[in-house]
């Protein structure tokens, strides 16, 4: 583990929870928080294999989303992260240790470019202004960099000058694309209302465990490539022999683990609600010559009803909010031997595990991964085994009827 370094924005930048804390202490705190959750939600901690530490707490992020703004009203233009405890204030983080140095170089050059031209930033209250966000992405295996500057449709941005500026930077990696996304939405989020390629292409390439992936500007992709390879390898080793078996991969994103499982399984169905991610998954399956996986775009609750082929194995990797209770019941009704749960939020996973237990599924193996040092986030792999008894079956049906009634009442209230 590298020597501890002090960030100049310690206490100011809201991007890191544990900045200023030695890594060994971060690790201890995060592992204890997981154990506390197990205790709170009555999860059997005896099957917990512990937390896998980070390989390094530095330079691991392959994507950063920065915001334009100021620290004080009327102050100079800033580009970086929201200030801790002051969401309307932005602090420039041009020496961030979590990202490749190229990200800091691109941020500094972009900020100077915009300051010199006296561009305004988009005000959340008045909904006026030009500059909104800067998103930088990096292919760890390909050494490619993709830059996306997000602005309103207000005129005046010097596109040619910006391209010339970035092309003239001395970078460790290869700049393969510069795009400009237009966003006039009132929401405080990066929303694609039209993207224009200013230079090169609107995607970069990445590799995970030997498979190649094309990652477009807005596609979800794993943030720490080295760490996710380790996690996926461990998760795949937990699966029983899936040769000639049908697998569901729910909340599959761009289909990374879907395709890895398809190398052995008879058929893998990936379900994902984000259309851009599904399109990327289909393209990447074709890129890798994989023909035995099929991707469905839509809400998991609805798409499960459309799948007629019963699974032999189910893998879920839900967003931070976890799975809807109805989805848990639907999965338990397949009555298959095991379900593999990959989680980016141990709290919502534990909430789901309570309901799985009511339906006869209990954890037999759990391991956590500190894939995002300096932050609060923890990844988990959990293998659930079917220990369902007859008494659980009636309970599952009763709870299903209960949630149908609750959803109906909510709809009527609206």
TrEMBL record:
Native source species: Mogibacterium kristiansenii
Enzyme Commission code: 2.1.1.190
Binding site for S-adenosyl-L-methionine: 222, 251, 272, 317
Gene Ontology MF: a single term: rRNA (uridine-C5-)-methyltransferase activity
Pfam families for this protein: tRNA_U5-meth_tr
Enzyme class: transferase
InterPro entries: MeTrfase_TrmA_AS (IPR030390), SAM-dependent_MTases_sf (IPR029063), U5_MeTrfase_fam (IPR010280)
Any single GO BP term: rRNA base methylation
Family: Belongs to the class I-like SAM-binding methyltransferase superfamily. RNA M5U methyltransferase family.
Entries under NCBIfam families matching the protein: rumA (TIGR00479)
Residues annotated as the enzyme's active site: 344 (nucleophile), 344
Keywords, comma-separated and alphabetical: Methyltransferase, S-adenosyl-L-methionine, Transferase
Name of the protein in question: 23S rRNA (Uracil(1939)-C(5))-methyltransferase RlmD
Domain of life: Bacteria
């Amino acid at each position: 583990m590298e020597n501890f370094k002090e960030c100049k924005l310690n206490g100011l930048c809201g991007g890191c929870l544990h900045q200023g804390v030695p890594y060994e202490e971060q690790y201890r705190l995060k592992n204890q928080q997981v154990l506390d959750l197990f205790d709170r939600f009555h999860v059997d901690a005896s099957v917990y294999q512990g937390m896998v530490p980070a390989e390094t707490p530095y330079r691991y992020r392959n994507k950063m989303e920065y915001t334009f703004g100021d620290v004080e009203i009327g102050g100079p233009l800033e580009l970086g992260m929201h200030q801790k405890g002051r969401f309307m204030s932005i602090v420039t983080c041009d020496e961030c240790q979590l990202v490749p140095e190229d990200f800091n170089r691109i941020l500094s050059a972009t900020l100077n470019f915009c300051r010199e031209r006296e561009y305004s930033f988009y005000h959340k209250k008045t909904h006026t202004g030009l500059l909104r966000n800067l998103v930088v992405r990096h292919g760890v295996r390909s050494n490619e960099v993709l830059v996306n500057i997000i602005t309103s449709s207000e005129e005046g941005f010097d596109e040619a000058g910006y391209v010339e500026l970035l092309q003239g930077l001395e970078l460790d990696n290869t700049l393969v694309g510069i795009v400009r996304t237009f966003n006039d939405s009132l929401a405080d989020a990066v929303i694609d209302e039209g993207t224009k390629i200013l230079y090169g292409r609107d995607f970069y390439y990445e590799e995970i465990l030997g498979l190649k992936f094309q990652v477009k500007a807005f596609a979800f992709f794993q943030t720490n490539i080295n760490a996710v390879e380790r996690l996926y390898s461990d998760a795949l080793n937990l699966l029983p022999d899936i040769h000639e078996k049908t697998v569901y991969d729910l909340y599959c994103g761009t289909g990374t683990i879907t395709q890895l499982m398809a190398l052995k399984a008879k058929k893998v169905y990936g379900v994902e609600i984000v259309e851009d991610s599904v399109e990327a998954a289909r393209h990447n399956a074709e890129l890798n010559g994989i023909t035995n996986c099929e991707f469905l775009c839509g809400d998991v609750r609805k798409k499960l009803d459309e799948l007629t082929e019963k699974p032999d194995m189910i893998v879920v990797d839900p967003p931070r909010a976890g799975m809807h209770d109805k989805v848990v019941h639907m999965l338990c009704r397949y009555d298959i031997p095991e379900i593999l749960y990959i989680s980016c939020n141990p709290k919502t996973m534990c909430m789901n595990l309570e309901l799985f237990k009511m339906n006869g599924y209990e954890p037999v193996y759990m391991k956590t991964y500190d894939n995002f040092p300096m932050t609060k986030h923890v990844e988990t792999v959990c293998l659930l085994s079917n220990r369902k008894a007859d008494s659980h079956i009636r309970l599952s049906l009763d709870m299903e009827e209960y949630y149908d009634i609750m959803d109906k009442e909510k709809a009527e209230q609206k």
